Amino acid sequence: MKPNSVTRNRRDVQAQGCPERSVVFGGAVYPWRLWVLLAPALYGLLAGCAFPPKPAATAPSLSAPPVITAPGNAYYHYTEAQISRLRGDIPSSIQHLRKAKDLDPDSLPLYHELAALYLQVKEEDQALAVLEAALDRNPNDTDALALMGRIYQNRQQLDDARAVYEKIIEQGSADEDTYLTLGNLYLDQGQLDMALDVFQQLVQAHTGSYAGYFFLGKTFEQQNYDSKAEAAYRRSLELEPELEGARFALINLYRQRKDSPEIRRQIIDAYQEILDRDGAHVRAATELALYHRHIGQPAAGRNVLTRLAEQVAPPELVRHVYRLYIENESYAEAVYVLQGLVAARPDQADLHYLLGVAYSGIEESAKAMQHFSKVTADSRFHRQATLQLAFQLNEKGEVDRAVHLLRQALEASPQDAELKLYLGSLYEEHGRLPEAEQILLEAIDISPEDERIHFRIGVVYDKLQRKEDSIAAMRRVIEINPEHANALNYLGYTFADLGVNLDEAEQMIRKALGLKPEDGYITDSLGWVLYRQGKYDEALHHLVRASTLVPQDPIIMEHVGDAFLKVGRPDKALEYYRRALPLKDKEREPLEQKIRDLSTGTERARP
Predict the structure, then answer these.
(1) Domain count along the chain
(2) SS3 23
(3) 593 vs 69, which has greater pLDDT?
(4) What is the DSSP secondary-structure string of 318-378?
(5) Range of the domain at 532
(6) Among residues 318, 319, 292, 314, which one has the least CA distance to residue 303?
(7) Of 143, 356, 437, 447, which residue is the least packed, with the fewest Cβ within 10 Å?
(8) How far apart are CA 389 and CA 367, in angstroms?
(9) Strand partners, 24
(10) 192, 233, 193: which is closest to 211 by C-alpha?
(11) Residue 579 falls within a domain, yes or no?
(12) 176, 186 in Cβ contact below 8 A?
């Protein structure tokens, strides 16, 4: 059975090696392995040798070795192209291949290789032009069609890609990959009947295609043909017993059926078949453990996890559990799995860290802190655990303990700019601004190009009423990263609030809004700078939108009230002022005065 680029790795249905083939060049037949040595592997670059060139049906043989020394000879330019390619000089290689093609215009592999080089330098239009020229010479050139289809896929021109693959199939020259690619294009687009037709053609044309039966099963499953899907998956496993994707697909089918002792046995047996082949299979073991818990067999689940912890190195466990559960925010499942793993390997600090993250995810902070505190200094997650502990302590109001923890960490790692950034942020949050400034300046000395630190100290300077220093810090952030939306907004809003540099402020804020179009605070900033410019109607439009994006912000509500007052709608202004007042926890007097003025019919001059 020929391997193919979609199914060659049996675990995840992907690519492995190339079959032995021949190619035609200049009217002569060369072994595929020799071609690979001479030329860049066209389909190795693009499709994992899914579409290797095929020999011509009637290729004449050479009676003598080719001459490759004359500059006017196609072989000369072909050889020079390979030398240039091996040196990394792709433009020169392209030039030589073009000359070789011009001298030997009937050698289709030259067109294929030239197209591949154009793709290597991301010149898709040139590649398509070369492939079209090849198809002008031979409209049934399967290799050119297949490569053209890949380009169309890359460009998301899916109708064009499907048309190309359909043509290959119609002319009877399609290999397994062509069917698989076309079928999956239909499958991805939800055209299930078309996908079914392609996969059925595949298993008829290539009776040993385990990938064909696998995707036939996927299509039947999406059409809710349960028994047909099961039969197709089982056939794929008969052809390739190592195909785990089919085993997991069967498990998924079984789990959708009505619960019964027989179904439970089938599910457990299917997981066990995977584990019998690979006892260290983390996904199968953890899912089996979770299934045991689901059906009321927690002890059996813990036993599975214990065996897994004994067979798999902790770094691998951490990597897989993170990917399967933490990354997907399946925190409850992660807690159960990690509890079992930690019980078996209590000395593994990395597992404790992940369990702390999982407990944080289900908002059990006390248990999270217990596990974060067990992450030792030799763990790669020690810093993250320290920061998590500091965050949890801060949330509980134990600020001094949080500061002490970060200070201890800095004694061990005095050049850690990130720890200093977090400590500075903690000081800032609690109004300890001189301490925040000092530690953030130390962080800048260590990491002068870290935009996060400059932004944070800019905020600190603003709170210290050192506006010029704050402006300079924000300009430094923008100098480091011109696309820093928050710094652009902060600086623009600062200018608007001060009533200076309003044109520059508007430009900055509009740029920030382009980067974050749904950000309510940036939308408010734009409205406010327009207000400051006297463009009250336009300002009101943006401010009202900001109030819908951030409905609980008192400053935005007050801005809307100010704008309504300027456009002659005191009734609406009073409404928004009254909505803003309960949301304010400080500096309430100016707003209360606005409400009193409007309530008594007195309209004072507004900012």
Answers:
(1) 2
(2) strand
(3) 593
(4) HHHHIIIIITTT-HHHHHHHHHHHHHH-TT-HHHHHHHHHHHHHTT-HHHHHHHHTT--TT
(5) 513-599
(6) 292
(7) 447
(8) 11
(9) 29
(10) 233
(11) yes
(12) no
- Cβ atoms of 301 and 292 closer than 8 Å: yes
Query: Nearest 5°: phi and psi at 29?
Result: -100, 130
The phi and psi torsions of 601 (rounded to 5 degrees) equal 85, 5
Question: pLDDT for 149-169, tens place per residue?
Answer: 999 988 999 999 999 999 999
Exposure pattern of 298-325 as b/e (b: 16+ CB <10 Å)? eeebbebbbbbbebbeeeebbebbbebb
55 assigned to some structural domain: yes
Q: How many CA atoms are closer than 13 Å to the CA of 331, on its beta-carbon side? A: 12
Q: Which residue has the tokens 């030799």?
A: 378
Whole-angstrom CA distances from 562 to 478, 548, 555, 598 are 31, 16, 10, 12
pLDDT in tens, 23-42: 333 333 323 222 222 333 32
Among residues 134, 159, 174, the one where a domain terminates is 174
Torsion of CA 143, 144, 150, 152, to 10 degrees: -160
> What secondary structure does DSSP assign to 512-551, as a single string?
HHHHSTT-HHHHHHHHHHHHHTT-HHHHHHHHHHHHHHST
pLDDT, tens digit, 9 for 90 and up, residues 92-146? 999 999 999 899 898 899 999 999 999 999 999 999 999 999 999 999 898 999 9
CATH of the domain at 551: 1.25.40.10
Indicate whether 564 belongs to any domain.
yes
Beta bridge partners of 14: 9
Among 178, 122, 187, 105, which residue's Cα sits nearest to residue 146? 178
Alpha-helical regions (H) of 223-256: 226-239, 244-255
Residue with tokens 């390997």: 345
Residue 51 lies in a domain: yes
CA trace torsion 298, 302, 303, 304 (10° rounding): 100
- Distance CA(86)–CA(3), nearest Å, equals 28
Report the range of poorest mean pLDDT among 35-49, 143-157, 346-360: 35-49
Structure tokens at 539: 């300002």
Quote the CA–CA distance of 581 and 596 in Å, as a whole number.
12
Give residue 207's pLDDT: 93
Residue 52 and residue 21 in contact, taking contact as beta carbons nearer than 8 Å: yes
How many distinct helices (H) and strands (E) make up the chain? Answer: 33, 2
